[in-house]
Amino acid sequence: MPKHNQRMxxxxxxxxxxxERHRLxxxxxxxxxxxxxxxxxxxxxxxxxxxxxxxHIVPLAxxxxxxxxxxxxxxxxxxxxxxxxTKANTQTLAKW
Length: 96
Fold this sequence. Notes:
By secondary structure, the chain is α+β, with helices and mostly antiparallel strands.
């Protein structure tokens, strides 16, 4: 069995984030935080609380895969969620 290579995992993760960032920069209408439903300003510096991050649907601490399903989120929303299983903002467009 091959030894687990953290450096390759890290490089692969960075490539995933970079690819998604570039995609959302080309299609800013899709840059929406899946946790709060507000738009993400793709021009903010990465250290800004409202900047772009990728959030793992199943948190890594709960058995999620580093390269599993991810969605865009604000840094602050992602941090607030932590290892929880917060549901995304599921508001409807029309009032019933």
